[in-house]
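In practice, a research group might receive sequence data for several interacting partners and want a quick structural hypothesis before committing to experiments. The following worked case mirrors that situation: the sequences arrive first, and a predicted assembly follows.
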Amino acid sequence: MTFVIDILLLAMLAATAITITRLRSLFAAAMLTGVYSFLSACWMTALDAVDVAFTEAAVGAGISTVIMLAALALTTREEKRPKHSRILPLFVVCATGAVLIYGTLDMPRFGDPAAPVHQTVAPRYLQSYEETHIPNVVTSVLASFRGYDTLGETAVVFTAGIGVMLLLVRSKRLKQDRKSKNNESEEPAQDNPKKKDPKNHIAENCIL
Amino acid sequence: MDYFGLYNYWIVIFLMMTGFYIVISRDNLIKKLIGLNIFQTSVFLLFITMGKVKGGTAPIINHHFDTYSNPLPHVLILTAIVVGVATMAVGLSLVVRINEAYHTIEEDDIHLVEEEP
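A structural hypothesis for the assembly, expressed as tokens:
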């Protein structure tokens, strides 16, 4: 039963990815990216990764779609028709894909309990209940065994937040400068009803 | 050889290559970021596939079960998802800045503006 769900969800993921490639409307592509994230969250639930599915549904399908829609509102919604030929990228992608598929041929089969991934540190984590007293092993690894890793992650998110803030605040200031410059140059030519009262104009500038 | 057990890997590679194709064949910067997002999610799927154990359940200790899936890939991907969204936010705000400086987000048009004296 799990295997049927697995095959169906993966087929839907592939169909969504192809549709995203073919769409020229960026708004539709952003919404489909949300659908894609949600489908992958469903698939992760089927494969026992419940914590990851939870995060992917909240962060991947939720926050990332919102961020993308905000970026679309500030830029444009339509993609232009590409001018280059598609043959070279298609060839590069097919060649890379073929090499990668050749690389999977000696991978351990799906769900194989004898795979090397399951032999080293994972059994140790699964027996750690006496040490940490947390039934959810993912939580205990995240917050206890690999706590420094999570601290580093927090630092990355903090840095990214500062980066976004610096980029967008600076652009806001530039826009204001440009607007005030335009106002100065347009003043003598146009008869703006707001400009009749100079006090009102100054007050507006102060608020801005 | 049992090739049926490789189905997941092959679909993951297909998704990965779809994302790669969007990144290298499209000129629109936001579309490129969407392609990167698809690529990134396919890597998550690859890791989660490798963590699955046949007959296992979610790694939450309970005396009714004795087989669990591998928790380590889950932890790594949990970190990667959050970092991925953070980097995408930085990328999108760079695109917003580029749009303000060049009034376009198509790579070709940006090159044209750059070449103008």
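Before designing any experiment, note the following. DSSP finds four helices and no strands in chain B. The two ends of chain B are 63 Å apart (CA to CA).
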